[in-house]
Amino acid sequence: MCSIFGHKPDRGHARHDGRDYWTSCRRCNGQLIRDVDGWRAGTAAEISFHDSLRGDRDEQRAAAGLG
């Protein structure tokens, strides 16, 4: 459906990872990144970098005892 009508970002759950805004598509549940032209699907490299930032954040929270 997204290939025909485009992605529908879940703006209420958008989060900033320190570099970009990210959310998921309400239709296909794919990861979307906020670009100057609007929301778009992230590239494999962008998703990998985003996941590494999230992993770093989780490790820092655990080390600080914030679970």
Residue windows where pLDDT falls under 50 for at least 5 positions: none
How would you classify the helix and strand content by structural class? alpha+beta
Strand order of the largest sheet: 1-2-3-4
The DSSP helix count reads 2
Q: What is the residue-mean pLDDT, rounded to a whole number?
A: 86
Distance between the termini: 38 Å
Backbone shape: elongated
Helix content: 25-40%
How big a fraction of the residues is strand?
15-25%
Q: What is the number of beta strands?
A: 4
The value of Rg in angstroms is 14 Å
Please, could you describe this protein's structure?
By secondary structure, this protein is an alpha+beta fold. It has two helices and four strands. It has helices spanning 2-5, 44-63, and strands spanning 15-16, 21-24, 31-35, 38-41. Strands 1-2-3-4 form a four-stranded antiparallel beta sheet, with no helix packed on it. The chain starts with a helix and ends with a helix. 7% of the residues are buried.
Give structural attributes:
four-stranded antiparallel β-sheet, single chain, 67 residues, alpha+beta
